Amino acid sequence: MKEKIYVHVADDHKILIEGIMAVINTDKDIEIRGYSLTGQEVIDWFANKKNTADVLILDITMPILDGFQVLKYFKKKKIDQKVIILSSYDDVKIVQEVLNLGCKGYISKNNAGEHIVNAIKAVASGEQYFSNDIQNILLKSLSGQMVPQGEMPDKFLLDTLTERELDVLKLITKEYSTIEMADLLNLSVNTVETYRKSLLKKLNVKNSVGLAMYAVKNNVV
Amino acid sequence: MKEKIYVHVADDHKILIEGIMAVINTDKDIEIRGYSLTGQEVIDWFANKKNTADVLILDITMPILDGFQVLKYFKKKKIDQKVIILSSYDDVKIVQEVLNLGCKGYISKNNAGEHIVNAIKAVASGEQYFSNDIQNILLKSLSGQMVPQGEMPDKFLLDTLTERELDVLKLITKEYSTIEMADLLNLSVNTVETYRKSLLKKLNVKNSVGLAMYAVKNNVV
DNA sequence: AGAAGCCTCACTGTTTTCAGTGAGAGAGGT
DNA sequence: ACCTCTCTCACTGAAAACAGTGAGGCTTCT
Prior knowledge:
Chain A is an alpha/beta fold and about 220 residues long. Chain A has helices at about 15-25, 40-45, 65-75, 90-100, 110-125, 130-140, 155-160, 165-175, 180-185, 190-205, 210-215, and strands spanning about 5-10, 30-35, 55-60, 80-85, 105-110, 130. Chain A contains 11 helices and 6 strands. The longest helix of chain A is centred in the last third of the chain and has 15 residues, at about 190-205.
């Protein structure tokens, strides 16, 4: 790990690329060599023999050829390009699909900041890397606890939950107490209690165990 | 990676610990601070505020609290201990279970020698590490080429539960309160509480939600 | 401009859970 | 006969969850 790791970033949101650059530039072992805003640009960039990168950070959703098509391009051309998917899409099917297409890492945008540097270093050195939430998704699908794709039973109900309520719901399944959640989320204990009560009401269950069971059944965790 | 990495090793076979020490001592960046022969010893060691280690090398099968229970201890106490599993057990379910419990690396004893130093360094610096064979197992199972294994990882733990404890565990997942359970089972409220407490202790979880989650993971319900 | 939804927090009071300890009765094995 | 395990129950005290109500600030849609 003495030499610099060269990275190329592809995402249709320029601001996100700038954010990634800011994070990565704090590490002297990594250098960003270029970026692309569409899948087509990525392919053009790598098609040019002069342009290479040890690691490609790739978004799934992009205009003019998406991430899948870029991966398929590499596969078709038998180019052994190391790719880390950076996606807000954390569906197990997506993850499996890109793994099959040969990508070596997958981190979700939620917590990209804390993972991206490690991910780049791991993948550059031949390892694989998945951020925690992605790992959880993979493991869940492994253990067959996934609701078979198709329609989920309570999709509508789940949709009525707000972001914060989901935060609390997830933490409850991890055995967090209200105080611990408040601490972690930087909220008042009263606020967290409010969310819990709201969840109990919305999901029509009796207690936190009911919330946890609901979360499991509906694949929240 | 200038400072020394302190390591604690836990395995019920002393000879194996000595072997690990021999391998690790060839690397000047790593120092073994202590070792344990049972899970209980591990917990005692880390429970002592003076004793810490950057990385814990942990065997799964040990007398008096196995590796799972050690991991659960850390989880319960919310101790962010970096753990590498060193196991001869290369079953997917085992691997995914320890990953769920927060362990950061997994190497099989078959080829521990060539991996252990790298694994320690990787995990110490916040990355994850899996030896080749473990990676293959994970990937194979991901792409559905794996025959699902029959036995559950926690069978041992589950087996330690008595009939009554199982009764209570099942009812907890159905959102029963203690009073309701006592009513249904024709028991005193105190008795039901005793079972709940026994469950909490045996399964090493913090609260009823933890019990419910355990039940789900192990197909009790 | 108004309505609706979300996020945030406070206050009060009740119920339940969690934790520790102790103990008697019965079943089963060594 | 002794030991261990299970089932059963009691008591106490602390911590957390549950329940109801109210309310201010913010954004978004109409």
